[in-house]
Design goal:
This protein is of the alpha/beta class. The chain has one domain: Alpha/Beta hydrolase fold, catalytic domain (Rossmann fold, 3-Layer(aba) Sandwich).
C-alpha cells in the first residue's frame, strides 16, 4: 500500500510539473547574412516540451508590422502566454515560432525595385535554412506556415503567393496588400525620391501587390495554401483585404475571411493569435 502511495504521489508530481511547463522565448538571437551583408536579429518561441523531447516540430514564421522589430509579437502580442495557453488547452499543437526582424537597414519584407536590398532572398535562402539547421524542425511544406500583421500581413501574402510550394497555410492579419493602383505606387516612389524605369516599376508592382497576384497566378497554386484572412471593420486597410477576399471567392479559392469589431491595434491582433495558432495546427495535424 505504501509503495502504491509513493508511485501515485510521484505520478501526480510529474503531471503537475508537465502542466506547469512553459515555453521559452529568445528575443535577440542573431545570424550572419551574406545577402544583406550584416548580422540579422530574430526571436524564437520554443514549445514547453522542446528541451525534454527528441522530436521535431512544425514552424510558424510570424511577421511583425512597421515600426516594430522581432520583439513586437513578444512584448505587445504576448506570444509566450497565448501560445502556451493554446498548447495546454489543446487548441494548438506544439510548434516553433520564428519572428524575424524586418526593421533594420531598410524596413520591409521584400527586395527593393533594383535588388540592391534583398530581404525576401535573405528570408528564403538564409533565414529558413538557418532555422532548419539550428532547431529540430519538420521541413516539409505541410509543417511550415506564415502569418503576420499589417506590414507583416503583406509579407505573409507575398511569401505564400510567391512560394506556395513552401507554406501549407498563410494567415495575413490586417494586411497591407500593396498599393491599390499602379499610380498610387508611383506616387509613393516619387515621395521617397526613388526613380526607376517605368517597366521596372510596373513589373515590381505586379509582383508585390496581393490583388494582382491572386488574379494572375494559377488557381491550383492558390488552392495549395490554406488561407486565413482577418481584418477589423474599423481598420484603415479594410478595403484591400476585402478586395482580395472578393477575388478569391470569384476564383473559388477556399479561404477563411473574418471581420471582427476593431481597428488596427494590438488588442485586435492578440485576439487573432489564438485563432491563427488553431488554424495552422489543423494543417499540421494528421487527419
Amino acid at each position: 500500500m505504501k509503495n502504491h502511495l509513493i508511485i501515485l504521489s510521484l505520478s501526480l508530481c510529474i503531471s503537475m510539473a508537465c502542466l506547469g511547463q512553459s515555453g521559452k522565448v529568445f528575443d535577440a538571437l542573431t545570424m550572419d547574412s551574406k545577402i544583406l551583408k550584416m548580422e540579422r536579429k530574430y526571436a524564437i518561441y520554443l514549445p514547453p516540451d522542446y528541451e525534454t523531447s527528441q522530436r521535431s516540430y512544425p514552424v510558424l514564421y510570424l511577421l511583425h508590422g512597421a515600426g516594430d522589430d522581432q520583439t513586437g509579437w513578444i512584448q505587445f502580442g504576448e506570444v509566450l502566454r497565448i501560445t502556451d495557453n493554446a498548447i495546454k488547452d489543446g487548441t494548438a499543437t506544439p510548434m516553433i515560432i520564428v519572428m524575424p526582424d524586418a526593421n533594420t537597414g531598410r524596413r520591409g519584407y521584400f527586395n527593393n525595385v533594383n535588388d540592391e536590398w534583398r530581404y525576401e532572398d535573405f528570408f528564403f535562402d538564409e533565414l529558413i535554412p538557418h532555422v532548419e539547421k539550428t532547431y529540430r524542425t519538420r521541413n516539409e511544406k505541410r509543417y511550415r506556415a506564415v502569418a503576420g500583421l499589417s506590414m507583416g500581413g503583406g509579407g505573409s501574402f507575398m511569401y505564400a503567393l510567391h512560394r506556395p510550394d513552401m507554406f501549407s497555410s498563410a494567415c495575413p492579419l490586417s494586411a497591407y496588400i500593396g498599393a491599390l493602383s499602379l499610380d498610387q505606387f508611383k506616387d509613393r516612389l516619387a515621395k521617397n525620391n526613388e526613380k526607376y524605369k517605368d517597366s521596372e516599376i510596373e513589373a515590381y508592382y505586379q509582383r508585390h501587390n496581393a490583388l494582382s497576384l491572386v488574379n494572375d497566378i494559377p488557381v491550383d497554386e492558390l488552392k495549395s495554401v490554406r488561407w486565413f484572412i482577418d481584418c477589423g471593420d474599423d481598420d484603415f486597410l479594410y478595403e484591400g483585404n476585402s478586395l482580395v477576399h472578393i477575388v478569391m471567392r470569384s476564383k473559388n479559392v477556399p479561404h477563411e475571411y473574418r471581420v471582427r469589431n476593431g481597428g488596427h491595434s494590438w488588442s485586435y491582433w492578440r485576439e487573432s493569435l489564438p485563432v491563427v495558432l488553431g488554424f495552422v495546427s489543423d494543417t499540421f495535424h494528421q487527419h
